[in-house]
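Weekly sync notes, structure subgroup
Attendees: PM, AL, DS (notes)

Item 1: joint prediction request from the bench team. They want all two components modeled as one assembly rather than separately. Inputs as received:
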Amino acid sequence: MEFRNHTLENGLQIVAECNGQAYSTALGFFVKSGSRDETGAIAGVSHFLEHMVFKGTPTRSPDDVNREFDEMGAHHNAFTNEENTVYYAAVLPEYQDRAVELLADILRPSLREDDFDTEKQVIIEEIWMYDDQPPFGADEKCRAAFYGSYPLGHSVLGTVESITDLPVEMMREYFRRRYSPGNIVLAAAGRIDFHALVACARRCCGSWEPLEVSRTIEQPTPHEGFQTIHKQTATQQYAMQLAGGPAAEDHDRYAAKLLATVLGDDSGSRLYWELIDPGLAEHAALNHCEYQGAGLMMTSMSCQPNSAEENLQRILDVYRRAEADGITPAELEMAKSKVRSRIVLSGERPRGRLFTLGSDWVYRREYRSIADDLDAVTAVTLDEVTAVLAKYPLTHSTTVTIGPLAELPPPK
Amino acid sequence: MTNAILSHTFSNGLVLVAEPMMWLGSAAFTCLVPAGSVHDPAELSGLGGFTCEMALRGAGKRDSRRFVLDLDNLGVERHESVSSAHTGFSGATLAENLSTALGIFADVLRRPRLPTEQLEAARAVCLQELHAVEDEPAQKLMIELRRRHYPDPWGRPAQGEQQSLEAITIDQVCRHFDRRYRPGGAILGVAGRFDWEELKDHVAGLLGDWEPRAAEPVAEKAAGAKYKHLPYQSNQTQIGIAWPSVPYRDRDYFQAWGAVGVLGSGCSARLFTEVRERRGLCYSVYAVYHTLRDRAAVFCYAGTSADRAQETLDVTLGELTRLTNGIEENELGRLKARIKSALIMQQESSAARSSAVARDWYHLGRVRTLDEVGRLVDALTCRSINAYLAEHPPDDFTIVTLGPRKLEVPVGVS
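Output from the run, pasted for the record:
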């Protein structure tokens, strides 16, 4: 594995982890554009724009775009979250140039009004679809309650109203600013011809006009609270709980991930033995999410409504015990084994490496090999985990539950 | 691009089938035990899933806590599931941990503790899973579609039903285990970095003396009505359409698979193009091929808001009819490119290959190498696929809808 990087004159950054032994090539454009960059008037525009990117360019119709991805046999897709929109494709190495050329071309979309109107319907269908699936609603409400006016509280999908009211001009304006080359990283993993990659990127993206673009990163002021959304049609009760955690730039993110594994992994964790093994909950997990300048420890749980109150109390008690007594050396070692094994397994596929490579560069302008990550996990000490528990108490959180219960008392 | 497929049949009937992938650092296994949901007694649906849950609660010298702890310490990413034909146990881990992981699972297959004191916890887990489906309208729809399309017990959902799950006793679990967990018909697929002779000897030591038990036949009953609407309070209406296809071991399988691919997989597939891209009718629409050993089906899905559901159903059915007019060269070219790329990328995942070799053995009694699949795909032509479609046009539909209102389904279906 060899790491290479290059920045075009207009600011577009190219990073690659080249592995001559790989069977495939994974390519992705990481655009720093997400719901945290939106205002209320354009809520959901980043995600809507992600859909519109596939709707054609001056030289390609929407059908051409879909057809050409399939002609290469590409495994491709795109996703939008709070702070990034990622367009990616995994292809056989012989298609490297063609895949870069296609991805680059669609990143300069036509944004035609009739396509915009048709796609609006698809977005609204997507919102309706999620709305039929609890815990949808609770997660966004919980983010909003936890972050208050801080932009990471914004909804990624937007609402049916915000999407319906969005004029195409506002999307075009948003696109012009956020998709400036200096705001984009082209990442590649697997069998890569780096020289050809840079040449192709220069040819396809070199003329993109650089514009000043920024993202204001302030310190969030987390809120605490507890609320219940009544959704009569749901069968199970769902809970989402947010507490602070290390940000993407913080070294203690490794300790936070191990802590989350000890307390809330889907197998063998404290929440597993407390809630899943005895059949008290269908799902219970603690995850660490990292963002630019902020981080979250996110607890999620679903269960039959009549056990929701008791389960939330049990979760709080698990967290209280952890804060009071810490975790054991054996728990930490087990978590390290699991996390290391997952790093190796997911790293065997170029498309698994692509997301790590891209995020590492977007967040920290840093290359980390699999070995670097394994070493970082191995090096975490009990003291560091204890420090995370102290700095980001899980017992201070915002909780939102959704389900058939009209009311649910907060745990004591 | 392909590796040798290695296999060994033990005297008790167990088959070990393996594919070395020496460029990987990992190894994975998939063990299929002939304890699928078709063997659940009708009044005890979900018994196979319940038994699987109990089998994981301690085995051999390990109690349930030790079992989970040891696998976690080995970094085994594991997954268990019950299909109509099998209960499957699979795991992927660093290559050096494969032997130990197999040893732990051999205990599950042969010496589970099936602890009475954990029966209620296991029951609660099964009931939680059953209830969770109620909040997943698309999944709920597809379960019902399958149940109606295949003759019982082949369409029977593995997760069982409330009443039967509530009634299952420890004796029934133990008896089910004794009868169903047996080496005859069991297949252990392994892929990744390993030494074949060592693996074979290790598995011989673990499972070579697993006592055989008699196989039992499955009695079939007719499938349900052709159209069913499930009332459900939701924004969207879920639409499911199924029709018969030929099974994986049929000589026409690749033709059938190719036709489904043109219709419903990939972003330039007909359904995606016509239903979503041109008309914006839905976010999700697809058709997939599904096979049992002796029968197969195409399952087609679309989810859309209730007031556009009728149009979505009509457009979708229109595409199914249009398919019989034949597919075109450019569609076939794209299909081949996608299949070829998927085949090559399978080489990057030991977990994907371990499950593929085990499934191939079940259906064919051998494994098709990736080279062989490549040649069969190359041999596909528009003519061959269109000839298949002329002989097996999509019809005899089973349709299930789920949502606030029933839909008009064409004459001949209802």
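Discussion: Chain B touches chain A through 74 residues (CB under 8 Å).
Action: AL to compare against the crosslinking data before next sync.
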